[in-house]
Every structure is written in structure tokens, then in C-alpha cells.
Design goal:
single chain, 307 residues, alpha/beta, Chemotaxis Receptor Methyltransferase Cher, domain 1, Rossmann fold, 2 domains, seven-stranded mixed sheet
Length: 307
């Protein structure tokens, strides 16, 4: 692939999704986009780029973007973020919420559903401690394909063996042939929506907990700042944002601050309130896309950015 074609694709993918592709990712673009070219009656990525240049096509651009995102996920990935919910966040709310017995959670990169369903199972297991509470879990993603799979709640033997404790498998899944289907009551706790992290967050509503894990690492600093500050605006005053182990707000924004006792857990920074920082998407980001968050860059054999 020549330099001009590479830059054309890199720029379009960044505009569409926020994903930043470095100069050494040419091989990745080739491997992911050749199948896209073939599905569109073409042979090479060069022919694909030529078609994209000649006739702008939103559906084709969407297909290209999805091809450059990864959808690998597994249940209870990294474990600690779910322990935060069970051992720290929910107990805090039980003490402070009084009559406001509602918990709204957003999974900003839901992929095929393992993260939001893991959260749902944690809450289901805590029912006895939370009488009268209601839950809303929103899972969003950049890929319609993975969201459709998530909605079915159906997983292979391999998928349920990755991170899912055997007691929860037996309790909340039913086996049919070689597949496992999650309990309808767990499935009903989660709503899935197609959404782009570059767009305005305002229509999503307010949340008590936001899982924004392993997503920011694929964006440039300006995009990270915008996403974090807009997410902070959706957060309840006593709410929390959970990032991946390799992610931080330090040096990016003052809208959130880390909890020293819980690495990866962040709360709103009241000292930064009123600075005008949080909630402002830059004009570059706001005008860069027409639809879609957060599946992340595909890498060979890794689960980069997915739960």
C-alpha cells in the first residue's frame, strides 16, 4: 500500500471512530481490509481505496471501520473492576442513597456482551442485600454485528470457559447442544445501543457507574480528554468511572480524580467543577463523525480493549 492510500485510510478511520493507527500498522490494515475489498467485488486494498475516493459511501466506510476494530471479550475480565462494584461501590451506595434505590451503569465498549452480563450477574448475586433496588445497564459499541450477538446472550463452550466461574455458569446459563444461553432475567437487565464515543453523550442520560475500560489507549490525547470530560458530565455526584489498568486521567484532565485506595477507579473532581472543561467536545471531534464507540483496534491474538 502506498503512503497516500495509507494516510487516506488512517485519516478516515480516525475521523469515523477516533482510533489512531500508527505508521507501523500497514500490515494490519492490509490483513483486515482485504476481506472487505473482496466482499465488495474488489481484489486489493488499493482498489478499495480507489472506490472510496471516487464515491463516498457511508455503508462502506462503516464496514471499513468495523474491520479495524476488535470484538474479543470474556466474562469477568481482569476481575478487579467487578470486585470494585461488589465490595466497594454498591456498599457505598447502600449507605448513602437512602430512598433512591436505582443504579444506572454504562458499559462504553460492550462488544459481545460479556462485560455487561458480568455486571448483571454481580448485581443479581447481591439481590438479598439490595431489596427494592432497580438496575439499568446500558451497553454500547461501534459495531452492530457484536451488539446483535450480545442481544442474543448466546455463547460457545469456549466463550463461557473464559473467566466465568462454574457456579455462575450452572446458575445463569442453559446449555443447548454446543452453545450456552444466558438466563432471560439476566439478559433483560441489559439494554444495548449502537453509539460512537465521538458523538455527544447527552442523549445517554446520567449514570452512577461508567465502565470505560481498555478503550482510551487507542485514541490520541485530545480525544481521550474529550471523552473523559464528557463522561464526567454524565456521572452522578457520588458516581464512579472505571478505566483499564493501562489507562489514567492523570495528565489528561482534571475533571476526574483517582481513588488512591482503588487503582483504576475514578470519581468526579469537585475542585475542577465550574472550570468549563468537562463536557466540551472539541469542534474537531464533534464534526468528525456521523454515527458511532468503541470497539477498538484489532491486534493479532490479543484482547485489546475488549471485555
Amino acid at each position: 500500500m502506498n503512503t497516500d492510500d495509507f494516510k487516506f485510510l488512517v485519516d478516515r478511520i480516525k475521523d469515523r471512530s477516533g482510533i489512531v493507527l500508527s505508521a507501523d500498522k500497514g500490515y494490519l490494515i492490509e490483513s483486515r481490509l482485504v476481506p472487505v475489498a473482496q466482499r465488495n467485488g474488489l481484489t486489493t486494498v488499493e482498489e478499495l481505496v480507489k472506490k472510496m475516493r471516487a464515491t463516498p459511501n457511508a455503508a462502506l466506510m462503516e464496514e471499513v471501520t468495523e474491520a479495524m476494530t476488535t470484538n474479543e471479550s470474556f466474562f469477568f475480565r481482569d476481575k478487579t473492576p467487578f470486585d470494585f462494584l461488589k465490595d466497594y461501590i454498591v456498599p457505598q451506595f447502600l449507605q448513602s442513597r437512602g430512598s433512591n434505590k436505582r443504579l444506572n451503569i454504562w458499559c462504553a465498549a460492550a462488544s459481545t456482551g460479556q462485560e455487561p452480563y458480568s455486571i448483571a450477574m454481580v448485581l443479581k448475586e447481591m439481590n438479598a442485600k439490595m431489596p427494592g433496588w432497580s438496575y439499568k445497564i446500558l451497553g454500547t459499541d461501534l459495531s452492530n454485528d457484536v451488539l446483535e450477538k450480545a442481544k442474543t446472550g448466546t455463547y460457545s463452550q469456549f466463550e463461557v470457559q473464559r473467566g466465568l466461574p462454574i457456579n455462575l455458569l450452572v446458575k445463569y446459563f442453559k446449555q443447548t447442544g454446543e452453545t450456552w444461553m444466558i438466563d432471560p432475567a439476566i439478559r433483560a437487565m441489559v439494554e444495548y445501543k449502537y453509539f460512537n464515543l465521538l458523538e455527544s453523550f447527552a442523549p445517554l442520560g446520567k449514570f452512577d457507574v461508567i465502565y470505560l475500560r481498555n478503550v482510551l489507549i487507542y485514541f490520541d490525547r485530545e480525544t481521550k480528554k474529550s471523552i473523559l470530560e464528557r463522561a464526567a458530565q454524565l456521572l452522578a455526584p457520588d458516581g464512579y468511572i472505571i478505566l483499564g489498568a493501562a489507562e489514567t486521567v492523570i495528565g489528561i484532565t482534571d475533571a476526574l480524580r483517582p481513588l488512591k485506595t482503588h487503582r483504576g477507579l475514578y470519581e468526579r473532581n469537585s475542585a475542577a467543577a465550574g472550570t468549563g472543561l468537562a463536557g466540551k467536545a472539541t469542534s474537531t471531534l464533534a464534526g468528525a463523525t456521523s454515527s458511532r464507540p468503541s470497539s477498538v483496534l484489532k491486534t493479532s491474538g490479543t484482547a485489546a480493549g475488549r471485555r
